Amino acid sequence: MQTVHTYGLSAAQWLAVLRIGLGLWWLESWRHKDKKGWLQRSTGIEWAKDVASRHRWAFVRGSFDRIVAPRPRAMAYVVVLAELALGLGLTFGLLSPIALAAGLLLNLLYFVLMIHDWAEQGQNLMMALVSLVCLLAASWQCWSLDRAFHLFGA
Q1: Which has the closest alpha carbon to 123: 105, 107, 109?
Q2: Burial label, 144 (beta-carbon count in 10 A; 0-12, 13-18, 19+)
Q3: Per residue in 62-95, pLDDT tens?
Q4: What is the DSSP string of 51-87?
Q5: Distance between CA atoms of 24 and 19, rounded to whole angstroms?
Q6: Could you tell me the maximum CA-CA distance found in the chain, to the nearest angstrom?
Q7: pLDDT at 120
């Protein structure tokens, strides 16, 4: 077995730092949302509807029109609560593999929807990459409730 040399912390601890940082990033995404606008007026979903209506890929336009557009308020709650749940789950290391997989999928969904908005793409790609690394490297092995509760082989 190859030994991993790190500075200051063990490899598992560095992975936990990465997971916790990703969780804090999701919490910041949740914190800075105008919740009143999102949840009462569905402003975020209206913005996404405009983006989807001009999307170059027909399957994105059609999927949005079939799944999201008919239920804007419910979808606004899904987005806002998903970002909060991901942030809390990853920060505290609770159900980490599930949160990492869900976050990866959400970032990829955001990436596909906003394919034209390159200003957002760096964030979505970076968060997806961190999710993938944390998932494949089992970042819940250290400093997590998953480890404390002996979940997922932690």
Answers
A1: 107
A2: buried
A3: 999 999 999 999 999 999 999 999 999 999 999 9
A4: HHHT-S-HHHHHHIIIIITT-HHHHHHHHHHHHHHHH
A5: 9
A6: 56
A7: 65
> Could you state, in order of their start, the residue ranges of all structural domains in the chain?
34-148
d(CA 77, CA 97): 22
Burial 32-66 (b: 16+ CB within 10 A, else e): ebeeeebbeebbbbeebbebbeebeeeebbebbee
**How far does CA 92 lie from the centroid of its chain?**
15
CA nearest to 134, candidates 104, 112, 94, 106: 104
- Cβ atoms 141, 12 nearer than 8 A: yes
Tell me the pLDDT tens digit for each residue of 35-64.
Answer: 999 999 999 999 999 999 999 899 999 999
Does residue 103 have a pLDDT over 90? yes
- pTM summary value: 0.93
Expressed in angstroms, the distance from the first to the final Cα of the chain is: 20
Mean confidence (pLDDT) of the chain? 94
